[in-house]
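Exam prep: given the inputs below (a chain plus magnesium ion), describe the expected output before reading on.
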Amino acid sequence: MPHHTEFSAVFVLLFVHELWCFQHLCPFRDTVDCATRRAGVDFSRSLPSIAARVLAMKISRKLVKPFLVEDGKHFRLKDHDPAHTAGVKTKEEANQLLQDGVAQLAEHQNKLYAQNSWALLLIFQAMDAAGKDGVIKHVMSGVNPQGCQVFSFKAPSAEDLDHDYMWRTMKSMPQRGRIGIFNRSYYEEVLVVRVHPELLKAEKIPPKLITKDIWKERYEDIRSFERYMTRNGIVIRKFFLNLSKKEQKQRFLARLDRPDKNWKFSAADIKERGYWDDYMQAYEDMIRHTASEDAPWHVIPADNKWFTHIAVAAAIVDTLDDLNLSYPTVPADKLKELQAARKLLEDKKK
Ligand code: ATP
Ligand code: MG
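Solution:
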């Protein structure tokens, strides 16, 4: 029965291909019970398969979607538990997931850089001690520093205050092919400035323009800015590290108790803690008005640092996955050039 034989051969080939992709190409693949690994099968790299996509979707459903806010209309902070761990039980499990995530991220970043077309901007906002610095350190640990641009936004300088509030942001946007990281951002303009309205006065805006609608107007301007950037190929993802007030207290106490953490302690942070409820209200309102499909917020549980790291890594991998990045193919004339170069090298004796 020749038909049967052909069918079986094709089926076996497909099956082997799927198994290979399952092991090699899916995000966080090492945590998956993988038949090929147990069997010791080792193939070389090939194209992503359906199995890899299915697994990526699973990871996305577990570690990304629960924290993703693309439409803020009904967003309520109290629906998000800062101690949530999505079924990941131990630090060891999380470490393995993080390693896989970091490796995936590095691979994506190489392609992003090689293509030199898309850029990715990651924005981190949080209360003090939520772990922004740690996230940046751990999640970006595998990426090539050449392809990464990090900016920390502190209180604006005198020069900054002589301009509109987006001025310093425009100068810091990532170049094409790069990953830009904002440790705090223009969102402070609807957070700390809202909680402390005296800061608005320092911005030297003509008083006539400061009305009760100012925050709504800022949300609108931020949405427009992000739409503009998105339409230019700068992909924006925003992270709110959602820390509980109780855990913040523990982390502040650790900064007082432990000599290796003393340097991190700041009396100003304790003062800001006194405005906790105002900040939470400002964060909630901000997410409600600035979450969009193009530039969504990820509300990441931050009471367990190990979980924060894997949830952020998963979100970034998920985003880059969706861009379907690939290495640029070399045009025919360039290929000829490469062949000529090879010939030249091989012709020479040394
Ligand atoms: P860390 O404490 O880990 O070093 P951080 O981001 O808290 O990180 P700080 O120097 O402690 O850094 O604080 C920066 C301060 O600058 C924050 O209190 C923030 O609210 C403030 N800030 C940032 N942007 C603005 C802004 N546009 N207007 C006013 N204050 C701002
Ligand atoms: Mg601080």
